[in-house]
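Pinned message: reference record for tRNA N6-adenosine threonylcarbamoyltransferase
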Amino acid sequence: PIILGIESSCDDTSAAIIKGDTILSNVIAGQKVHEEYGGVVPELASRAHQQNIIPVVHKAMKDAKVTPEEISAVAFTRGPGLMGSLLVGTSFAKGFALARKIPLIEVNHLQAHVLAHFIQESDSKHEVPEFPFLCLLVSGGNSQIVLVKDHLEMEIIGQTIDDAAGEAFDKCAKVMGLPYPGGPLIDQFSKDGNPDAFQFSKPRIADFDYSFSGLKTSFLYFLRDHIKKEPDFIENNKNDLCASLQKTIVDILMDKLIAASKKTGIKEIALAGGVSANSGLRQAFVDGREKYGWNIYIPEFSYTTDNAAMIAITGLFKFRKQEFVGQEVAPYARMGI
Ligand code: ATP
Ligand code: FE
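Predicted structure (tokens):
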């Protein structure tokens, strides 16, 4: 089948076309309007989605050299995400399916982040994880360890009780005066810093769960104390601060993942979500392969942050099982995996 995927859960409007599991196009329109606010403003996001959705879908079809008549089904992000943003993608998908008389497929955004591993390029096929595998899903809104039993059968075995890892990066970056989203900047400055320059305490949390709010608070107090003595403390230590912070976040993430792998005996280990762009985390995965004999799976950079290709591939697995929804479907902002 040829499937059109639509993603609009947060601040990126995206449309993609896949044929079987092979990607034909993946168009993403980001939104610059949020930068000056230091975070995504929901009302502005939904308005921008409305402006972007039609041109983005047009471009996806043009890039894929596919006409609307050739599309077999349309898959869209039903949740989780911002209600106003989800509404735009959902309404568009419903309208498209109705007009073309083709099946409509709802997709869980988090499941899609995990299934991004199964997207294949037309020129080069890559290895995909074998079931069961563990997936560390780390994004702006989520941090969890997912036990993936099958394409559409997933169980969360650990998750954050407060902030997500991406949120921890972004909030700490904000405290340092860096623009939103600060995660990529922390990664960049870390490259020239010493990860052992400063020590930040790690949370003590049961099982495979995470917590990041304590780190954010202690980082804030740490900076405030030093700035009292040295007003330019942040400027003078930017790289070391970023490197030390990044190391702490990566260590927190990896400690639980390693424990989960030991407990379950699973050595197929995948990474997903926007934070998987982080170079420190990627290196930690490579170290895990050396140290624990893991088979590691790190998705293509363009499929880690929000994109419609992952929505389309999830749509494919549901298409094969004939899991369709009707026109009465509504977005679900707090949808679980
Ligand atoms: P969710 O998928 O949970 O709804 P989201 O879609 O907002 O959240 P993503 O787009 O998957 O999240 O990821 C964005 C997050 O990834 C941001 O918090 C951003 O700072 C972080 N991020 C992106 N690149 C890096 C990097 N190189 N290092 C650290 N964090 C990064
Ligand atoms: Fe996402």
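Pinned by admin. Summary line: The pocket of fe (iii) ion (ligand 2) is lined by residues 109, 113, 139, 306 (CB under 6 Å).
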